[in-house]
Amino acid sequence: MTSPGEQAACGEILHRHGLKNTPARRQVLRLLREGGVLTADDIGERLRDEGRTPDPSTLYRILDLFTARGLAERHYLPDLRKYGFSLKAAGHRHRLICVRCRRVVEIDRCPLEAFEKELRETTRFAITGHNLEWYGLCPDCQAAEARRAESPPDKSGPDGKAQ
Ligand SMILES: [Zn+2]
Ligand SMILES: [Zn+2]
1-88: what CATH class? Predict the structure, then answer.
């Protein structure tokens, strides 16, 4: 499930961010490296699927630590009203996040440079950074949505309760 190469890569990344290499940190990092945005609950669930017994408070601590050290990035997920985490890409980036499958598309160019310059001039703020993310449905999730709309599910849900 975890190749020695992947273990070594995770160890190297932790080291580069001045973080001690522990099995729990390597596990969280390995899942983040698979891509997309994951909540602490998602990570806990995936680790349990692998037969591990993650401690939720340890997971939150690791994700906070990764964010503080610039290894991970935190994103607010409006549909869940929760925070998700992704591996932080190098350089200044903006992102599109699919709220359904949590796929992340990186946008290389910054659409805010001119506006930031204008803000600096009008507010005289020494602006040090900005954050911008778009949320929506990716093409695959839009297609799945359209298929669902074409064939509505029967009246009873999987637990037999009327919906
Ligand atoms: Zn999607
Ligand atoms: Zn920007």
Answer: mainly alpha
